[in-house]
């Protein structure tokens, strides 16, 4: 059978599933399609024309190369297709977004046919996805006196690719759709268990919210054809939890508009709202697609006649509705007054959603076009020898005299690109910054690859110090979906210039280490900026931002990111940890005490948490920074002492060397370069030339939080509170409860020690607790299954060397085998300990899950509905989050322990400890 016939068979299968033909991205298939177009008598010719015109992916896909070449032949008269005139061929090229289409357009514009050259130039003037090879051709042609090249460069310098776009409409009508009450996780919009389908946009769109919700959205669109549907998180924040481009893509697919008639299932301009705004990462992704994210503030805290907040019997603030956004409410966004209206009634100022920069993103159909547009304008002005004309909104630069810098302000100033020379910038300033480290993970990586193809990028930016493609999110089960997707992803990323977890050539053993742990190791400078395709890209060295797959692609392609300098909240500690407490309890207590100190207001949300962690090594400190994603912070920064930072860098060096020893180094010697940079940084600290990063004494913070360690006397548990009568209070990370709350009798169905929240000491705690139980009872018996997944192979190797792994093996009923990885996900668990392969495991929820309706006690970060465990009829699944000793003891007992049982179980065990920096 021909590849086209195979494709037709797939089309039939997809039709049965209610899906359109899958977009074509391969050269071989499109070549056969073109052959059928050329054959005027071919029975498939009409369908082939449709596929060629409307169903071929653009950018740098191999299909795009074939399409661009054929269009060039039509324009030059070498081929004739009645349905595709040369003028229409130029139109099709104009929608192909870079890569081979730009090469063709340059060939035509710089060719000998004056009429064709003129047409090609007019199309080129609208294009922004040009790379070095393209711009060099223009430069050389200009220097050779080519008039067309000069005309194109003059247009670029004036940014006509932007100025000739339609202006924003003064009014944008929206009709509301409440997607849920409380925080809306991106899991609702793009479930983790459907990660395998994210690169198939139409198929993945079927998993957004529920089929019923999709039909309700469609009904609103029919009822209000002149309005966009605005998806809303009522009494909550929209898009918390994960950095999901797929979540925004799904929202755009159902509520946005098609970016181009010739590119299938790529939609833009979604409009979303939340009572408490939009999660920072999600909002960045909305910007990528030229959408609008609105902080609705439609509920507020009720106050009494004295101005005091009214509280209910649980001491929680009582909320009252300011205005209704009930499903079906028609509202108007006025881009001129920057207000939201219901008819003539002004509801709220939305200027933060319509800043000059965001307006540009909306007008251009997304932030990429602006980023690349500014780059091409700068290039053109340089070649022409003129000053850059002021076209785009100037970056806001805030500089406050006699005010010091927070840690994040120092990092942004050091890495700033294109800001006013010598000007010190404070929070609120818009800054382009150099990105040092980039991470792509394996369930969003396929989309990152698509984004790179769409923006016509072929090789990693030489300014990036290091980049890594993980394999951790698909580590648990090497099923057919993983076998189909992951090797293809690894080859693409390896070719692009990343260090990859799996070797496409099979020359080194797969490393399924959790991405955040690897990025934490390859970050060798606390002044670094890190961008990673996961919300838990939260390093304990440098400042790291979880990002959508598109922002990751942009960082890989350009080595830059753009964002305002965030405000910071300073977190310090006083007192001392009690002997029976674990550092995870301090992490939870930080969130709990912060909420208490600020009357329920989460001052961390959307800001940097600058945590003065002092003497805690990077591995252990990561437990804090990792949790800051659940605190809804934009990012976090650890302020370490000199010697602690040196020790952390030495550990990082040794782990990078292991990667080299495994054969993971690439032709650019990235890993060795990181070791060299680490050595340089260590020398700077030791000599006093450049001590460890610290803020200025007169830095200004949004708030300062002091955590009292003395009052932390019981293990702290983050509870999803699944039965709270207020739906908006469920599945947040704010219900932090002490162990005694549960009375020692709440049943636990499964325990999970794993995810990025644990480090080597956690695995040692498991081993030590098993020794204790054996000593006390003579035998270790589990009354609930215990799943243990080390974050990295390095940890397993170190545990083997130190004698702990043999105890874990002794009491396990299952141990992973890299030679025989699981091909299907486990659906039933025995009351034994499972030693699983390094990776995300249950935390990700896309492969392994607990049984429906289970109560799970986990070290994970994820308590969202359906993530670790799904509901069953009559019983909600719940994932409670706690320290390693609490999880282990809960699995042994089959219930949550009481305080006395807990203290007895951890006696003599070296829990993860922390002491504040002494100020004496």
UniProtKB/TrEMBL annotation:
Gene3D superfamilies for the chain: Aconitase, Domain 2, Aconitase, domain 3, Aconitase, domain 4, Aconitate B, HEAT-like domain
Residues annotated as domain Aconitase B swivel: 178-405
EC number: 4.2.1.3, 4.2.1.99
InterPro entries per the UniProt record, alphabetical: Acnase/IPM_dHydase_lsu_aba_1/3 (IPR015931), Acoase/IPM_deHydtase_lsu_aba (IPR001030), Aconitase/3IPM_dehydase_swvl (IPR015928), Aconitase/IPM_isomerase (IPR050926), Aconitase_4Fe-4S_dom (IPR036008), Aconitase_B_HEAT-like_dom (IPR015933), Aconitase_B_HEAT-like_dom_sf (IPR036288), Aconitase_B_swivel (IPR015929)
Domain Aconitase/3-isopropylmalate dehydratase large subunit alpha/beta/alpha span(s) in chain numbering: 409-894
Keywords associated with the record: Iron, Iron-sulfur, Lyase, Metal-binding
Pfam families: Aconitase, Aconitase_2_N, Aconitase_B_N
UniProt domain Aconitase B HEAT-like: residue ranges: 6-162
The keyword Metal-binding belongs to this UniProt entry's keyword annotation: yes
Cited PANTHER family: ACONITATE HYDRATASE B
Name listed for the protein in its UniProt record: Bifunctional aconitate hydratase 2/2-methylisocitrate dehydratase
SUPFAM superfamilies linked: Aconitase B, N-terminal domain (SSF74778), Aconitase iron-sulfur domain (SSF53732), LeuD/IlvD-like (SSF52016)
GO MF term (any one): 2-methylisocitrate dehydratase activity
Key word Transferase present: no
Name of the top EC class for this enzyme: lyase
Organism this protein belongs to: Sphingobacterium anhuiense
